[in-house]
Amino acid sequence: MEEVQDRQSISLAEVKEILGKVEPEDMDQIQRWTFDYVSKFATTDSKNAAEMKKLLIKDCSLTEDEAVEIVNIKPTSMAELRSFTFGWKKLILAETLEKMLKIVRERSS
Predict the structure, then answer these.
(1) Cα dihedral angle (42, 66, 10, 1), rounded to 10 degrees?
(2) Mean pLDDT of 55-73
(3) Can you count the helices (H) and strands (E) in the chain?
(4) Which pLDDT band, with edges at 50, 70 and 90, does 109 fall under?
(5) Please, what's the largest Cα pairwise distance for the chain?
(6) What is the DSSP track for 3-53?
(7) ∠ CA 95-80-55, rounded to 5°
(8) How far apart, in whole angstroms, are the C-alpha atoms of residue 47 and residue 38?
(9) 26: DSSP letter
(10) How far apart are CA 14 and CA 29, in angstroms?
(11) How far is CA 96 from the centre of its chain?
(12) CA-based nearest residue to 11, from 59, 62, 61, 82
């Protein structure tokens, strides 16, 4: 078994791009299930997703895991955004939440 060299959180769109480079007959069952799932639920392309993640980390001081969660969900309202960030158990200022929504809206169009 290959040793893990590095761990990185990636969005559904990034997973779709990676698995999309593999021929379906070369995938194992879990890879096929995963590719089917991300094909249905990834709502942006990997370039947009990576840029959104980078901006959320840099401009909103999110962790990589938090940024990926926001990229995957792409909340459309403050209420929806708060329902996810509430679970992080840290205080996020309203101006930061607004900035997060702005990044998601600008990169989703």
Answers:
(1) -130
(2) 96
(3) 6, 0
(4) low
(5) 48
(6) PP-------HHHHHHHHHTS-GGGS-HHHHHHHHHHHHH--S-HHHHHHHH
(7) 50
(8) 15
(9) G
(10) 19
(11) 18
(12) 62
Report the chain's C-alpha Rg in angstroms: 15
For 45, how many CA atoms within 13 A lie in the half-sphere containing its CB?
Answer: 3
Between helices 78-85 and 64-73, what is the axis angle to 10°? 140
The pTM assigned to this predicted structure is 0.87
Which tokens sit at 29?
């069952």
98: its two tokens: 């607004």
Structure tokens at 37: 């799932």
Residues 4-58: tens digit of each pLDDT: 788 899 999 999 999 999 999 999 999 999 999 999 999 899 999 999 999 999 9
Residue with the bigger pLDDT between 67 and 91: it is: 67
